[in-house]
Design a protein that fits this description.
Belongs to the class-II pyridoxal-phosphate-dependent aminotransferase family. MalY/PatB cystathionine beta-lyase subfamily. GO terms for molecular function: cysteine-S-conjugate beta-lyase activity; pyridoxal phosphate binding; transaminase activity. InterPro entries: Aminotransferase_I/II_large (IPR004839), C-S_lyase_PatB-like (IPR027619), Class-II_PLP-Dep_Aminotrans (IPR051798), PyrdxlP-dep_Trfase (IPR015424), PyrdxlP-dep_Trfase_major (IPR015421), PyrdxlP-dep_Trfase_small (IPR015422). Its cofactor is pyridoxal 5'-phosphate. This protein is α/β, with parallel strands linked by helices and 388 residues long. The chain has 2 domains: 120 residues, Aspartate Aminotransferase, domain 1, CATH 3.90.1150.10; 239 residues, Type I PLP-dependent aspartate aminotransferase-like (Major domain) (Aspartate Aminotransferase, domain 2), CATH 3.40.640. The chain is 40% helix and 15% strand. It is built from 12 helices and 15 strands. The strands form 4 sheets. Strands 2-10-9-8-7-3-4 form a 7-stranded mixed β-sheet, sandwiched between helices. Helix 4 links the parallel strand 3 and strand 4. Helix 1 runs antiparallel to helix 9 and helix 3 packs parallel to helix 4. The termini are far apart. It binds pyridoxal-5'-phosphate. The site of pyridoxal-5'-phosphate has 13 residues, from helix 3.
């Protein structure tokens, strides 16, 4: 390995949302990694800081070319640069797209359990979140196609938010899944917003497929959101890109992101993103190897020490979804008890909707030694909960 993913960096008292915890607590909740970002990004940001002038900026062609280069080389998809728009984050862009591409009172489809903030983007804008819940069977999740078709066909359903790959269940959708979604969306005139923020973080040999890459049909009815923020742990850089092949959709979304004022970069967003996309490939591959190993460590630990829990095998994201139904159907109470007794702070699944109340989500993007600390606390917390 060229890069070090074992360094135990102290993030307390750094204004980190994740690490705003008591001294004895260990946070393994929000999707934020405990690794220092790729060196190329740090140098680019330092170089920008050294220039000392931070006036208004426009997004240069080199930014869009860097995004294009990344998708071509990492994901075998070459989106045109003129399909792209810079935005200050995936969630602000999603909320803006919901406002532009659907109407108050419409249904916006999701697949619960899913990233909880999707519900905010829908409900806070006066739309109705309609879920076609993922079916959980024999330890794995799948789409209930009949249910999805029925919900797409509802006259008020105008938009779907796809999480590709899926947070929190860690699923990489196949090209066939994506094409099937595109066909249903086309039949029922539904626009798909494909949130691909987790697309770079997959196990070797399990790369994700961008929704718009599966067919012209999918490309034509979709808005894709990508960002270096999860991949390189640069969420506070506030940089993301919308990719919208369909000109009419692009124009509508473009109006939205401009009236909502999310189309202008801060001083570090552009150099940081260009460096990520042009110099970060090896770093990400080593990161993915580290995450895969951590997921394996967690799975083995749970099998041996906590056989009453069941890890859902997923090939994407650094978030692990764990079935706790043999311990409780109220994992909010479980997580509160674990935090109280051991200081381990993990996410209770109910906020993701669907059957989430039976699950917890654990973030394993940390050095192996910190993961081990977390696993020991998890075992102690579960055992104490069971005995209480
Ligand atoms: C699926 C998904 N989308 C979006 C975000 C956040 O995106 P941003 O910080 O660019 O708004 C997250 C963060 O965890 C996420 O998991």
């Amino acid at each position: 390995m060229q890069y070090d993913f074992s360094e135990m960096i102290d993030r307390r008292h750094t204004d980190s949302v994740k690490w705003d915890v008591q001294d004895n607590e260990l946070p393994m909740w929000v999707a934020d990694m405990d690794f220092r970002t790729a060196p190329g990004i740090i140098s680019a940001i330092k170089q920008k800081a050294d220039g000392g002038i931070f006036g208004y900026e426009e997004v240069p062609a080199a930014y869009f070319e860097a995004v294009q280069h990344w998708y071509a080389t990492e994901h075998n998809w070459t989106p045109h640069t003129d399909w792209m728009r810079f935005v200050t984050g995936v969630v602000p862009a999603l909320s803006s797209a919901v406002r532009r591409l659907s109407h108050v009172g419409d249904n916006v489809l999701v697949q619960a359990p899913v990233y909880n903030i999707f519900y905010n983007s829908i409900v806070n804008n006066g739309r109705h979140a309609l879920s076609s819940d993922l079916q959980f069977h024999a330890g794995a999740y799948a789409i209930d196609w009949d249910d999805l078709a029925t919900k797409m066909a509802e006259p008020l359903t105008t938009m779907m938010i796809l999480c590709n790959p899926h947070n929190p269940v860690g699923k990489v959708w196949t090209s066939a899944d994506l094409q099937h979604i595109a066909e249903l969306a086309a039949t029922h005139h539904v626009t798909v917003f494909s949130d691909e923020i987790h697309g770079d973080i997959t196990d070797a040999g399990h790369g994700y497929t961008p929704f718009a890459a599966v067919s012209d049909l999918a490309a034509n009815l979709s808005v894709t959101a990508v960002s270096p923020s999860k991949t390189f742990n640069v969420a506070a850089l506030h940089a993301a890109t919308l990719i919208i092949p369909n000109e009419n959709l692009r124009n509508q979304v473009d109006r939205g992101i401009n009236t909502d004022e999310l189309a202008e970069p801060n001083a570090f967003a552009i150099p940081g993103s260009i460096a990520a996309y042009t110099t970060g490939s090896q770093w990400v591959h080593e990161l993915n190897a580290t995450i895969t190993a951590n997921k394996q460590t967690l799975t083995t630990f749970v099998q041996q020490q906590l056989p009453e829990l069941h890890v859902i095998a997923g090939h994407a994201t650094y978030l692990v979804w764990i079935d706790c139904r043999d311990v409780t159907h109220d994992t909010q109470a479980l997580c509160s008890a674990i935090r109280q007794t051991t200081g381990l702070f993990i996410s209770a699944g109910a906020v993701y909707g669907g059957d989430g109340h039976d699950f917890v989500r654990i973030n394993v993007a940390c050095p192996p030694a910190r993961l081990q600390d977390g696993l020991n606390r998890l075992a102690a917390g579960i055992h104490q909960f069971e005995q209480a």
